[in-house]
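call fold(seq) -> tokens
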Amino acid sequence: VQTRAGFLQSQRDLNATDKEAVNLYASLRAVHYTGNHRLDSIEAKLAKAFQALPKDDYGRLQPRAARHLVHTYFAKEHGWLLTGLEPHGHNQEVSEMHEVVILEEQAPSLASLIEEATRSGHGLSLHDSAALTATIERLILDRSVDLLVTAYGLNGEPTTARLDEDSLHEVLSSFLVLFEFSEDAKPTSPAEHQEFKELAMDTGKNWDHLVEFLRDTIFNLAFTQRHTMNPFVPPTYTFDQAASFVDELTLRYGKWQDAECHLMTDFLEERSSQGLVPLHEFYSVKLADMEYEFSESLSYLEEVGALDQDAKAVRIANYIAGPSNCIAASKYFSICCISECNEIIGNIEAIIQGPAAEPEILLHAVANISSRFVDAPRKLEASLVDKLETIADKHDGLVPLHGRLFAQWLFFAFPNECPYPHIVQDSVVLTSNYWLNRKSSEMFATPEISAPPANSTAPIWSDEEVLPLVDAPVKAAKRVADFTHYILLVAPIALV
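ret:
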């Protein structure tokens, strides 16, 4: 029997043990063929990117490509940056799927099975990728439901209570405070929590917007559930119904807060040239409507790849995607700005349907892709044509879609949307937790910047190539083509 979330176990019992988490993965795979809505939705969103990624001889993804697919899904759909699944930063040394912290802590047996299977060269099909992605998503949503339980207690409500609309709003606003403010809002008592909420209402720059987001989510989901409600009595809500609201709030929060990222991007774009904002402009302005000022230190900007040393300028897309613009919702994930480049790359992948393409095909595709800052169709500059052909010359006439050089080419083609592919020494610098554990002076310190010479803000091309999705060959005596078949072989599971 499927629950409100469409899975085979109840919300409150789900993932109570590691064994159940492994069951969840197998169950998700099993119910794929029975029309599970959430799983079908995830698979549909993964399909085009899956087709465009490099695969093994069985048509399945090897570890790096699978990692990229899952990372990109969460970043693009929810603005989530999973701990242990950070951006690779065009560094060949990257974490692997089994190192996702929520898997290690909440489903260690599943993490071990994934590690063993990938070490043996067992790739992921599209169905497997969707099931694994849905499993991780469900694990994260379960942690949000844990916060909901806390929110009930902080408002003096038992989880067995049926809440009226006002009480539901109070509980869910408490959940959002716990969710958004994380460690700063860790309650020690209901009274202290209420004081924190009142302070947030009085001084929080986004409180009114947060309340509006909450009300819209409640209204929209309640409307879809109207057939289950008695129209002749005031509505009341069970814990499971409140949990469904929390699922929706958690899933939608990233795209909701991304509106602020768009405001920052627009503000910087007005002061930029070719996606670069001169340092003296960056540090001399304040975004009054958002009560926001740009005060990240030069060392921070350099480490995350947002500083163009030659041009003495800040790269807009790199800065927006940086960890200073993330909130650490929990130790399992942060919520960051959603890269506008992901949509552009998604359009390219949908057209090419493979991991590489001839430059002529890519030029035609890109010339017909529009964005918030680029109108299509357009005629690409001769320099862009030459650069793309140069990339193809390095790869036997084809341009790898997921290599560093093509990412750099996209930066030149869409300078306000696509980040410059800076090669980081350690991808951990791209995470908010890394900077939270350092002194604030290392992240924030506005230096005195004199005006640079005229015409200095021009990005410089680099010929360094990195192919981050290419795995080393796996030596194995015997391969099992289907990843999930392997999981079921090595871990007998009784499906619920």
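The chain is about 50% helix and 5% strand.
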